[in-house]
Amino acid sequence: MGPGATRNTASAAVEAVLASIGLATKEENARLHIAHFGTFERTTRPARQGYDINTGTMRSIPARSELTFKPAAGFLPEQAD
Question: For the segment 8-57, what is each residue's pLDDT rounded down to a tens digit?
Fold first, then answer.
């Protein structure tokens, strides 16, 4: 991308990167490490019981897969005291 890039071009590039990350981590417990940026990891959350605040009853929450991100140590700015 250069100085002539448009918002649509940048959006398409970001969407392509996110789609690639999704494909690379499609399998259960898959991990994708990008040096100096961070690690994307697909984890599975087990089925569980949860409280429905709208009805005041317990309900079953199905198992699901989620993509998590852990930034690299140098990626986040240092915290000021």
Answer: 999 999 999 999 998 998 887 789 999 888 999 998 889 999 999 999 99
Which residues on adjacent β-strands are paired with residue 64?
45
Could you tell me the residue range of the domain that residue 54 belongs to?
28-76
- How many domains is the chain partitioned into structurally? 1
**What's this model's pTM, rounded to 2 decimal places?**
0.65
Give the torsion sign (CA, 41, 46, 47, 51): negative
CA-CA distance, 40 to 68, in Å (whole number)?
6
Residue at 4 is within a domain:
no
Dihedral pair phi/psi, residue 69, rounded to 5°:
-130, 130
Q: How do beta strands 48-52 and 57-61 pair?
A: antiparallel
